[in-house]
Write a structure and sequence with these properties.
The complex is a heterotrimer. By secondary structure, chain B is an alpha/beta fold. In chain B, the strands form two sheets. In chain B, strands 6-7-8-3-9-10 form a six-stranded mixed beta sheet, with helices on both faces. Chain B has a four-stranded antiparallel beta sheet with strand order 2-1-4-5, covered by helices on one side. Chain B is globular, with a radius of gyration of 19 Å. Chain B is built from nine helices and ten strands. Among the domains of chain C are: about 220 residues, no CATH class; about 170 residues, Rossmann fold. Chain C is built from 24 helices and twelve strands. About 0% of the residues of chain C have low confidence. The chains are: A mainly alpha, B alpha/beta, C alpha/beta. At the A-C interface, α3, α4, α9 and α11 of A face α4, α5, α11 and α13 of C.
């Protein structure tokens, strides 16, 4: 029983981090119905950026985040202006391939720049924090806390600011938003910026306990998509619920049944959800 | 003639499909002008083109003498035209209050919240439900919200696309009541309606659109007797039964 | 045709003879990669190019093929001649497991599911002791130099084996492309709903393409294992392989026979040589270029290298032409009293809105029934309910006595109901001729015969006759997307009537068309009716309705208000009130 409780708690902690990774994907999908296959590549790049700031600039990742996040916001905005803007109304195949090409460019750009090696931030003397009686590595707890804060901030932004409401409007009905004078194109660019910035935030806090190499995007893309599908895409809280579910599933089933095949269970849950309720736990059958 | 809105020789459509085939019309300041006609005539396409959702293929749209053809919707909005779309024009998952607030999105002054409160005072039903998500509103309440939103911007012209679709007769009267009130405050209305009789009762002038062209212009319910109008709606003119309060029907045509 | 055949033959001979006059081991190795990855790309082409379902997980099938053949050989001494096909079968099975639940969803979900599959497979194999986990499998060297085991100690025999696999894969795609199956797959890719309505069982064809694709990929993976003699999840199941296969097919030109061939040569050779010259870090730089090319492709030229080379002549928009309008119209038939389509009490609500509230309708054999009414009356929704695109909440409908309500669209089509949609729903990238042939009778078509054979002769004659009478015969080789709006309308009419359904539902056949062509469309409908077809027509163009229809049903607020001869309905006071409002 002790084991199960431990697995559950660390599953929740991990799940919060997954949720933050999934947040940007869900946001962009919900606002403009574009599925960004290159989403996890930004995570990988942010992790590299944070790593190099630590390795070369001796900057602790927690301090590097305020540098990395705004830069990646700009990167997201730029990606929208240069590429995504042209495919928002394009047929699905064009969208899939455009983001797929982007994945290539980012991943192999990283390969060329950093080589295939694995890098990680090493902080000696890092301890654990007791969460509900279970000892969890400090860096993981910090990451989970940052994730919660980010969700809260974003929810607050969307609900209480004029721009946030305008963003919601643009997501709900593009024509009505235009008719109210909302610059929908700018809202889309904003959502891309926020989406990439949030995944960069996740990256900055992942690198202390997860190593980076050019191909980690695969696993994280899978986790992000599974979270979004489970929770319900297009909703900020969907990413949160989905991420938590994935984290829990992975840890609990991995502990109870087999750690080797824990991803298999995640996959099985993902496929099952697609069959039974494709709009996710929180979704309401919109798209 | 000092037209507020003028449409000249307008051709518009989607992809290669031509829907409007040369439309001419005008709306004067503070006028309520209605466009009726059967489905597929192009009424909604006309409004969408005027407001900038579609680019005209040929012809021009003038607002107060200036061409607005090809401008984007936010730009047309800033020039003083509001567009209330068919179906719904509200944001279903935002609260009533937020819907109103966003109605004033283009305003940069500080008086927005004051004005929103003033609007809520005028429409107690909306005040009551201001914290609820707009999607729970009934059809009539939604229209009320949409028209109330217009007040926040003081436009010169409002485009209404089928405002009474799916509404009960009592609510229809309410909606047109508000239209008259707003007109008295200086706003012109260009209304597209399928409900011809109601529209004609409330309009200063009416156009009949069929197959992308204006077939008739006139005023009052009597125009329903005109063979041109009957042909547009029913494919042929015919011997109509007695219309109470109107002129006797013309003798049957060929 | 024989000219291309000549070139292909020459090219093949040149390729086959390469090892005779080139000793460069590096080049031979590169070419083997070209062939095997090219074969995998051709296999991907079937499902990602023709059927339009993009997969990002083909490495899973490649790896399954490699592991199955290798494992059977090294652990059980089973010859690869058997092992390769076992691998193909396993891969096909897995692919169907993934495809079945996801094919009915939007295409993103299938792409994600394949991504998930590949990652799962890789991680699972990485940890699975039975197949060597991270250590991988070594192929036993004692089997070399025996044809029975497909293993050698020099490159040329591998070269020829790989070439054979590549030729095999290309041949399969060529056969599919040339016959009905290829046409149907491309139709499904371009407009799935329209394909369904013509009676094409879309899921069945997609699963078919999927299984075929997975098996061919597995075969190339198996041969690859026999060549490299050592496999692990990194070299046969990495995402790199999935992505490479997609890139080859994309840049070469997906949905074409030669695209993956061109792409394989271009991409793989470039990849091999840059890896050799730049080495280490530089190994990835060509991929950056590929990524850029893919992005550009998605924005500008979707046909890839094949598209660039083919450079189709951009024909000027075909002028609107009626077809022989001066022919005498056949006399109008009198419809019978027999009811062919009986609709009772059909209901459908969306959310809180009751779009259709209990519709009763009887369509008589041989008539043209008009369906008119104001906006929101529920007419198109009724059509959707009858044809399986919407699930009705209640009611029943029978066609010639057999129940049709609640069936999926292709089964409704098989039962004898045809339909056109509002606007235009033809397949823009298929030729006019291919478009029409999609309207064939599909209920008795087997997958095998549709891959190998063409549509039967009587059907082709009927298709030709239809195209001729619609004035489309001289345009039959043009992509349908180049026709004018009105001609596309006529084409969709031809497709709907080709197999002579019992009842044809037309949704606004004359909308958005210039008056000359409206006349023509009306003429054609009346002519088809004279030949025995029954129509139900939704229209707003009242003059058209009056001239064309025997009877008119007036619908408002989700119900049929009245049915009768056009002149009667026109005068009905309820109609006037509902049209003009209160």
């Amino acid at each position: 029983m002790e084991l199960v409780w431990q697995a559950a708690v660390s599953g929740v902690v991990l799940g919060l981090v997954y949720a933050l990774v999934a947040l940007g994907l869900s946001l962009v999908w919900g606002v403009m119905d574009v599925v960004n296959l290159a989403h996890a590549e930004y995570l990988m790049l942010a992790m590299y950026a944070t790593y190099w700031l630590w390795a070369l600039g001796k900057l602790d990742p927690t301090l590097a985040a305020p540098v990395v996040v705004p830069v990646f916001f700009g990167l997201g905005w730029l990606t929208y202006q240069l590429l995504v803007r042209r495919i928002v109304r394009a047929p699905l195949a064009a969208q899939i391939f455009a983001t797929f090409g982007l994945l290539f460019i980012l991943r192999y750009g990283a390969f060329a720049a950093f080589g295939p090696n694995v890098y990680g931030v090493w902080r000696p003397g890092e301890g654990t924090v007791a969460v509900l009686g279970v000892p969890v590595a400090t860096s993981k707890v910090v990451a989970a806390a940052v994730s919660l804060a980010a969700f809260g901030l974003l929810a607050g932004f969307l609900r209480y600011t004029k721009t946030g409401k305008a963003l919601q409007a643009a997501a709900q009905n593009r024509d009505v938003a235009l008719a109210l004078g909302i610059p929908v194109d700018r809202m889309y660019a904003l959502s891309w910026g926020v989406g990439v910035a949030s995944v960069a935030l996740a990256g900055a806090f992942l690198i202390p306990f997860y190593q980076v190499s050019p191909t980690i995007g695969d696993a994280f893309l899978l986790l992000a998509f599974a979270s979004v599908v489970l929770g319900g895409f297009g909703r900020v809280d969907g990413a949160l619920v989905g991420g938590l579910c994935i984290g829990l599933l992975e840890n609990l089933l991995g502990t109870l049944i087999s750690p080797t095949f824990k991803f298999l269970f995640v996959f099985a849950a993902f496929v099952a959800m697609l069959l039974v309720r494709p709009q996710g736990l929180l979704g309401d059958g919109g798209r | 003639m000092n037209a507020l809105l003028e449409v000249r020789g307008l051709h518009a459509g989607y992809d290669r499909r031509e829907v409007l085939r040369g439309v001419d019309l005008y709306v004067r300041p503070q006028e309520i002008v209605v466009m009726i006609g059967p489905n597929g005539a192009g009424k909604s396409t006309l409004l969408r083109t005027v407001f900038g959702f579609l680019r005209p293929q040929q012809g021009d749209v003038l607002l107060a003498g200036e061409s607005i053809a090809g401008l984007s919707p936010p730009e047309v909005l800033r020039r003083g035209v509001c567009y209330v779309m068919q179906g719904y024009s509200i944001l279903p998952n935002l609260t009533v209050y937020d819907n109103l607030l966003l109605g004033a999105y283009v305003r940069r002054d500080r008086r927005v919240r004051e004005d929103v409160e003033a609007v809520l005072d005028r429409f107690p039903v909306l005040r009551e439900r201001r914290r609820e998500k707009a999607r729970v509103l009934s059809g009539g309440e939604r229209r009320m919200l949409e028209l109330a939103r217009v007040l926040l911007l003081s436009p010169k012209l409002v485009l209404l696309d089928e405002p009474t679709l799916g509404l009960a007769p009592a609510v229809v009267d309410q909606v047109y009541g508000m239209v008259h009130e707003l007109r008295a405050q200086g706003i012109a209305f260009f209304v597209v309606e399928q409900n011809a009789r109601t529209a004609l009762r409330n309009a200063d002038r009416a156009y009949v659109l069929e197959q992308g062209q204006v077939r008739f212009e006139g005023r009052g319910e009597e125009i329903l007797q005109h063979p041109e109008v009957q042909r547009a709606y029913l494919g042929a003119s015919l011997n109509l039964p007695e219309v109470p309060g109107g002129k006797p029907p013309p003798p049957p045509q060929g | 045709m024989s000219r291309t055949g000549l070139w292909v033959g020459l090219g093949l001979a040149a390729l086959a003879s390469l090892p005779a006059w080139v000793q460069d081991s590096f080049l031979l190795n590169a070419m083997i990669h070209v062939f095997l990855l090219g074969a995998a790309a051709q296999a991907w082409n079937l499902v990602g190019g023709y059927a339009g379902q993009v997969s990002f997980g083909h490495a899973a099938f490649f790896g399954i093929g490699a592991y199955t053949a290798a494992w059977l050989l090294s652990r059980h001494g089973v010859t690869p001649w058997v092992g390769l096909w076992v691998g193909a079968a396993v891969a096909a099975g897995v692919s169907l497991l993934v495809g079945y639940p996801t094919f009915s969803l939007r295409r993103h979900f299938f792409a994600l599911a394949t991504l998930a599959l590949a990652e799962i497979a890789r991680i699972s194999f990485l940890n699975w002791e039975v197949v060597g986990a991270a250590i991988g499998l070594y192929l036993p060297l004692e089997y070399r130099n025996r044809l029975a085991y497909l293993m050698w100690d020099s490159k040329p025999p591998y070269y020829w084996t790989a070439l054979t696999v590549f030729v095999l894969a290309t041949a399969v795609v060529w056969v599919v492309d040339r016959h009905r199956a290829g046409r149907y797959l491309r139709a499904v890719d371009q407009d799935e709903d329209a394909a369904e309505m013509l009676g094409i069982p879309t899921r069945r064809y997609k699963l078919y393409a999927m299984g075929l694709s997975a098996s061919l990929t597995a075969v190339s993976g198996g041969v690859y294992a026999l060549y490299v003699l050592y496999i692990d999840p990194y070299n046969v199941m990495a995402s790199r392989i999935s992505l490479l296969v997609v890139v080859i097919a994309l840049i070469g030109g997906r949905g074409t026979v030669w695209g993956p061939v061109l792409g394989a040569f271009f991409i793989v050779l470039l990849n091999e040589y840059t890896r050799a010259w730049l080495g280490g870090r530089g190994a990835g730089t060509d991929f950056i270029l590929f990524g850029l090319l893919v992005v550009l492709l998605s924005l500008y030229q979707p046909r890839g290298l094949v598209g660039l080379l083919a450079r189709p002549l951009r024909q000027p928009q075909v002028a609107v032409a009626g077809a022989g309008g001066d022919e005498e119209e056949p006399p109008r038939t009198l419809p019978t009293e027999e009811v062919v389509l009986r609709v009772r009490g059909v209901q459908k609500s969306f959310g809180g809105v009751r779009a259709v509230r209990g519709v009763d309708l009887e369509v008589r054999r041989g008539e043209i029934l008009g369906l008119v009414g104001p906006n929101g009356a529920g007419k198109s929704t009724l059509f959707d309910c009858l044809t399986g695109f919407a699930r009705p909440d209640g009611g029943e409908a029978s066609l010639g006595g057999a129940r049709v309500l609640g069936l999926p669209p292709h089964r409704v089509a098989w039962a004898g109901l045809g339909r056109t949609f509002q606007g235009i729903r033809v397949f823009p990238d298929l030729s006019v001729w291919d478009n029409v042939l999609c309207g064939a009778e599909h209920s008795r078509e087997g997958l095998w015969e549709s891959t190998l054979g063409e549509a039967p002769e009587p059907l082709r004659r009927r298709a030709e006759a239809l195209l001729r009478s619609f004035g489309l015969w001289e345009h039959r080789h043009r992509p349908a997307g180049q026709l004018s709006y009105g001609q596309q309308k006529l084409l969709s009419l031809a497709m709907a009537v080709l197999r002579q359904p019992q009842v044809v539902l037309l949704d606004e056949p004359a909308a958005g068309v210039n008056p000359v062509l409206v006349e023509e469309i009306g003429r054609q409908i009346r002519a088809l009716n004279a030949a025995g077809l029954t129509f139900v027509v939704i229209e707003h163009n009242m003059e058209f309705v009056m001239r064309t229809c025997h009877r008119v049903a007036f619908m408002a607020e989700g119900r049929v208000v009245t049915v009768g001869r056009p002149e009667e309905v026109q005068r009905d006071p309820r109609v006037l009130e509902l049209y003009y409002g209160r």
